[in-house]
Amino acid sequence: MKLGLINSAWAQAGRETGWGIQQTKQIGFDTIDIGADPLDIDVCERKLIKDTADELDLPIVSVTCVAVGLVDFNPSIQRFHVDRVKRHLDLCYELEAQNLLLVLGEYIWEQQVIPPAEQWRIGVENTRLVGEYARTLGLEIVMELEPFKLSLLNSVDETVRFLHDVGMPQTVRANCDISHMHLVRTPFEDVAKLKGLIGHVHLSDCDGKVHGDLPPGRGITPVQEYLAAIQQTGFDGVVSIELEFSPEPDKIVEWVDEAYRETDKIMQALGARQ
Questions:
Q1: Residue 247: per-residue pLDDT
Q2: CA 126/CA 148 separation, integer angstroms
């Protein structure tokens, strides 16, 4: 496996894009994921991302996209988000990334007004639409399991069911987020249900109660056990560290460096890092 970092760690601390990419390489990461909305950045920023990563020989593996409107009940909102996801896929193609990390939304009104099955159907159909576009570009979409009560994909079983319903196993796959799985109390053995479906992995720690995205060792997530279970599925791709806001933004380099060191120790102990 390779070890990557989502560059949102730097952006959340208010640091500029090029500097963050340089720090990612200097710390020792193998790859980088880009958290950027193509509707919010211009061509100069896109070129900066690509040129800097190329100069540093730091492959861009994934672009992140939160598109909660894909499961909105308004057709106009759905159309906007389908088009927005396609623009993210264009950015993936431009950056020569491998996949788009896609986050779906939640069931609205506590599932009391719109039948949950209807929102599920909308999500499947719209994901299939963007999946078809991804396929024309030679890209994958990886769906993230979210640890929130009303998220559509909030368990391994629901993720597997969703991927099955979309029916594009070579294009629409799973992102296996370790701290998210812990927050919903996923048994280690359940990871095996994702065998052959995992396209990308997110790694972080949490306190076991609320979403945290902390460096490994700062919470109680059994990171090594989950990563071992992922390894046993045959996955040999990229594990990307995802970090939320550092409590000391002026020490963001130390925060990221800590996450790198602790994750590398775990991967080396498993013989997982290449």
A1: 85
A2: 21
- Is this prediction's pTM over 0.85? yes
- Which residues form the domain of 202? 2-253
- pLDDT tens-digit map of 139-168: 999 999 999 999 999 999 999 999 999 999
Residue 63 forms part of a structural domain:
yes
Q: Mean pLDDT, the chain, as a whole number?
A: 96
**Are the C-beta atoms of residues 174 and 159 closer than 8 Å to each other?**
yes
158 phi and psi angles, rounded to 5 deg: -70, -35
115-123 contacts, C-beta under 8 A, 24 or more apart: 118/73, 119/71, 119/73, 119/152, 120/152, 120/162, 120/165, 122/70, 122/71, 122/72, 122/73, 122/78, 123/70, 123/71, 123/152, 123/162
CATH number of the structural domain spanning residue 164: 3.20.20.150
Q: Are 131 and 172 in contact (CB under 8 A)?
A: yes
Torsion angle defined by CA atoms of residues 185, 191, 197 and 199, in that order, rounded to the nearest 10 degrees: 70
CA distances from 49 to 17, 63, 105, 213 (A): 7, 12, 28, 24
